[in-house]
């Protein structure tokens, strides 16, 4: 058993920022990352971020990943990073077990931050398992990291920001985007992303959903159908679109599995993406000294994940005796940044979700 | 198919990696995962489902969903979407459950 101060599970935007804050506070840190590099999903994001300068606005996602990693460089003596390492167990006595190259390791930590992120949801329709049907994030990984095209033509299901941004990136890579379809009556993501697609002639079909996919061994075509305001299919409105690729961008679910495994108290909050842990004001779960930040406590954008990480890194370090000299000042700043990020109409879902989580807690 | 020109991502000249897919020698590139190399060759079917033998490709490409399992160097259930391609790997389509023992 290896003893540690603070273990951070997940080296994405939330985990990296949490590490920086904890190191600044004087704690030593072990980051455990499943992937062979740090940065989480930032590494495949070629678009420039929104928000304010504090959250690296106007910088491309993959460049933000480099910045977050380089911010940790001054702390070599107190920072350990295990890559290609999967956490396979989280236990009530703060034991973390990992798997790397077929060998197990056991750690014990004074505090643990779970920053495992989220995974893409699937959508139920006939033949949704055909090769050629991928998560939108998967296609982004394929083309932006490995420079491989998913196909010749794509239909995107879902007009949230991921659906819109990935559609645009598909066009940048040379793929024809035949349509974006959206079940809701209005476009889900930012207008600025939708407008870019419309200017390039991509139809965005609202109040429309997929009914069925066709193909033997791989996708050949899909059937779409219009739906009314009660989300009922309008018979006779079915249309066929020929396409070899379909992207599903219907949201993400928090990766709660480790928390559930440790029997941490959970609630199902749809606005936050699914199962999330019940938390104190500063994100401590029902298991003492186990904290959460980023998408695992509610699916949002990477900007919020970074601020949350920065905040929770401070709090977790403080909890085990490493107090940042500017603790109060920084906490206030991060809380204000989070409020600002969640203040607009696009932050409404997170606000409702987090409120519902609080209510469930006291129910 | 690979991205030919891109306004943001710089093209890097990558060295070739030879590997075996279902008995035939094929070529991928340095930096590929097994799944990305196969996809670039137009191979989308990575496995067959357990009961109905339906074709399976990858879904998430980041090691979450388990839809990309293949047999690699005699080991079944390898997540090919996150396993880096190496020279000489012997990769085959996995049909149903893999035999572990």
Mean pLDDT of chain B: 93
Question: Could you describe the largest sheet of chain B, including whether it forms a barrel?
Answer: 5 strands, mixed
- Class inferred from helices and paired strands of chain A: alpha/beta
Helix content of chain A: 25-40%
Low-confidence stretches of chain B: none
Radius of gyration of chain B: 14 Å
SS elements, strand count of chain A: 19
Count of DSSP-assigned helices of chain B: 1
**How many distinct domains of chain A?**
2
Average pLDDT, all residues of chain A: 95
- Unreliable residue runs of chain A: none
For the record, the CATH class of the largest domain in chain A is: Alpha Beta
Order of helices and strands of chain A: EHEHEEEEEEHEHEHEEEEEEHEEEHHH
Provide the CATH superfamily of the largest domain in chain A: FAD/NAD(P)-binding domain
Q: State the share of residues found in helices of chain B, binned by percent.
A: under 10%
- Morphology call of chain A: globular
The tally of domains of chain B stands at 1
Strand numbers in spatial order across the main sheet of chain B:
2-1-7-5-6
């Amino acid at each position: 058993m290896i003893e540690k101060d603070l273990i951070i599970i997940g080296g994405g935007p939330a985990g990296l920022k949490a590490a920086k804050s904890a190191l600044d506070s004087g704690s030593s840190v072990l980051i455990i990352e499943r992937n062979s590099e740090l940065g989480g999903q930032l590494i495949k994001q070629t678009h420039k971020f929104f928000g304010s300068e504090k959250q690296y606005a106007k910088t491309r996602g993959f460049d933000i990943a480099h910045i977050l990693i380089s911010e940790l460089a001054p702390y070599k003596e107190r920072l350990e990073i295990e890559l290609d390492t999967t956490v396979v167990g989280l236990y009530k006595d703060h034991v973390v077990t990992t798997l790397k190259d077929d060998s197990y390791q056991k750690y014990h930590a004074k505090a643990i931050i779970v920053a495992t992120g989220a995974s893409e949801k699937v959508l139920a329709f006939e033949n949704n398992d055909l090769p050629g049907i991928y998560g939108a994030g998967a296609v982004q990984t394929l083309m932006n990291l490995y420079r491989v095209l998913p196909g010749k033509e794509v239909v995107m299901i879902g007009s949230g920001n991921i659906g819109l941004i990935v559609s645009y990136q598909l066009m940048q890579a040379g793929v024809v985007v035949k349509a974006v379809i959206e079940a809701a009556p209005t476009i889900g993501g930012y207008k600025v992303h939708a407008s870019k697609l419309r200017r390039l002639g991509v139809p965005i079909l609202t109040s429309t959903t997929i009914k069925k996919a066709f193909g033997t061994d791989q996708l050949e075509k899909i059937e779409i159908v219009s739906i009314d305001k009660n989300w009922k299919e309008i018979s006779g409105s079915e249309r066929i679109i020929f396409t070899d690729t379909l992207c599903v961008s219907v949201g993400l679910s928090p990766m709660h599995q480790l928390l559930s495994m440790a029997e941490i108290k959970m609630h199902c909050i749809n606005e936050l993406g699914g199962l999330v842990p019940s938390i104190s004001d500063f994100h401590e779960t029902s298991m003492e000294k186990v904290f959460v930040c980023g998408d695992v406590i509610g699916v949002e954008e990477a900007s919020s994940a970074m601020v949350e990480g920065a905040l929770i890194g401070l709090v977790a370090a403080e909890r085990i005796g490493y107090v940042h000299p500017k603790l109060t000042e920084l906490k206030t700043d991060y809380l204000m940044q989070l409020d600002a990020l969640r203040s607009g109409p696009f932050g409404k879902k997170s606000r409702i979700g987090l409120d519902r989580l609080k209510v469930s807690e006291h129910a | 198919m690979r991205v030919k020109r891109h306004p943001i991502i710089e093209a890097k000249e990558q060295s070739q990696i030879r590997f075996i897919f279902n008995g035939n020698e094929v070529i991928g590139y340095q930096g590929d995962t097994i799944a990305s190399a196969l996809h670039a060759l137009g191979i989308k079917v990575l496995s067959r489902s357990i009961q109905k033998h339906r074709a399976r490709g990858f879904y998430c490409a980041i090691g979450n969903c388990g839809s990309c399992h293949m047999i690699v160097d005699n080991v079944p259930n390898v997540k090919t979407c996150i396993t880096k391609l190496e020279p000489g790997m012997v990769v085959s389509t996995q049909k149903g459950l893999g035999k572990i023992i």
